[in-house]
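Lecture notes, unit on protein representations.

Consider one protein chain, 330 amino acids long.
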Amino acid sequence: MADRRDWTRETLAEGVRSGDKRALARAISLVENGDALAYDVVRDIYPGTGRAYAIGVTGPPGVGKSSLISALVRHVRGEERTVGVISVDPSSPFSHGALLGDRIRLADHFTDPEVFIRSMGTRGHLGGLAEATLQAFLVLDAAGKELVFVETVGAGQSEVEVIGIADTVVLVLMPGSGDSVQALKAGIMEIPDVIAINKMDHPAAKTMLNEVRSILSLDRSRAWRPPIVLTEATRGENVELLWEKVAEHRAHLESDGRLEERRRKNLAGEVFAVASGRAKAHLERAVAGDPELRRLLDEVQRRELDPLSAVREIMEKVFKLGNEDGTHTR
């Protein structure tokens, strides 16, 4: 296999398809940096994707997501499944992203040739984390990974976009965590397919279970009722049960063609999310570099020009978009 300095579009695509770890690491570094070669490689490998099953794992910081993923990886490796893990850390300014603690918790699997783990930060990406995560997932998919876990912190808009590629979304909560209670109240219960309440020995675990159950009972329209599993990731307790629930959700999706429908919807959503990210980045650069556009913002801030008039002028100048009748774009 080529030396890292000698990768070409062809050798990198070939290396990814064969599952070579150095090729995967190089391709994902290029993805993370927004390198032009990454786009060519992903374009070349894309026809061979669509086989990996993506599990999104989200939840507030500190609830044990990495430990739970590590335990799940151990379980599925016992079934001889090949695995990829993408750990997304939106806040990390460091090269290669995520926190040292996360890597330590997943370190048991670093020497396993059938497991590829990568943590990612934002770095040079025009389309933000949604774009970088989508491309990294496609690389692992093309490499033949049967299961890919995508971990992200929180449940804001950017995190929802990051796990927008997931076939099954697992929300991890922890009893006694203010963030977990806020997560319940913030309406992110629309996101998950399976819910894990980690630290099952905590005195408030059963209380949280009942709280989550009562919130879920308000939504009677869903064909799939998200199961709730009490887990203890560090001891591996109920990890097998949690995986059974993920498998049941997959079977539910596959039973009547919903998996294909969900993937089509997810891919369309990812295209829009990435396009939105790029358009926003382009817009910010255009406004920063154009005194006339900056003047519009100043006028809005001084309340001399209303915000929507400023939007219309900016859209007309940057994207050449405007209504022929001169009315506001709404």
